[in-house]
């Protein structure tokens, strides 16, 4: 659970940084972020010794969870304010829970309660009345991105559980990023005019941070943490970054927010995390110290 919390704190800064990239081609931003993320984990890559099937499945999971998600997510900033993007991500935990329940063909009412409380808490923090009909396109883009991210999390948990525990997570993670980069590059062939792409030094710095830390290291830690908690806890933590993002906006970027809403929403979401808490499912890989995720596979 601590891994998910650490990542949530880091991701709290991403909304503001992404806003500074809104003037750039969104597909190009997705490609560059994913290329940097792949570069971070390429040195750790070790070929799988179980045939091409698992490698292909991991790449396909990454193409959906990271590639399609980022292509859709970055494009939504052309239609929405940053706070609206954050608001519309509140459906992710419901999607995580529903996808997991559908795949497993069983239902845990406490998972539903945790997801519902997570959504309710984020709604308390971020709800704004939106009468602009033009918001619909951005809303649809964010929901499709949420669906990709939620489905990828569930798929990663299941696929990782099929592989030997002694295999290093870091040695595997280049494969999802490679799949994601291939998909984003394919989309950019039709959507991006690379000749006109011109980022400022500050935008390049933001891209480097978002690619290496927010997208690279943090998605790795998030998926590692996802294998060590149950679906309800994972669902609730999908929205922890939202009140943290508000706190970041207040402290770092000097924005204004309703403190009463922030505290009330955070309390409701914390209750959701507590209700969802419990031992991981028996199918999940055994718990290992985080440092072991970077050890080489046993020969």
Characterize the structure shown.
This protein has 14 helices and no strands. The protein has helices at 2-11, 14-19, 26-41, 52-76, 82-88, 92-104, 109-126, 135-162, 169-172, 174-191, 201-226, 231-237, 241-251, 259-276. The chain has 299 residues and is mostly helical. It has one domain. It is 69% helix and 0% strand. The longest helix has 28 residues, at 135-162.
Defining traits:
299 residues, mainly alpha, 0% strand, globular, disordered C terminus
Number of strands: 0
Structural class: mainly alpha
Name the shape in a single word: globular
Which segments are poorly predicted (pLDDT under 50) over 5 or more consecutive residues? 278-299
Number of domains: 1
Rg for CA atoms: 19 Å
Please outline the major beta sheet.
none
Distance from N terminus to C terminus (CA atoms, Å) equals 30 Å
Helix content: 55-70%
Strand content: under 5%
Assembly state here?
single chain
Question: What are the secondary-structure elements, in order, as H or E?
Answer: HHHHHHHHHHHHHH
Please count the helical segments: 14
Summed up, what is this model?
With about 300 residues, this protein is an all-alpha fold. The protein has one domain. It is about 70% helix and about 0% strand.
What is the secondary structure topology, with strand pairs?
Blueprint: H1 2-11, H2 14-19, H3 26-41, H4 52-76, H5 82-88, H6 92-104, H7 109-126, H8 135-162, H9 169-172, H10 174-191, H11 201-226, H12 231-237, H13 241-251, H14 259-276
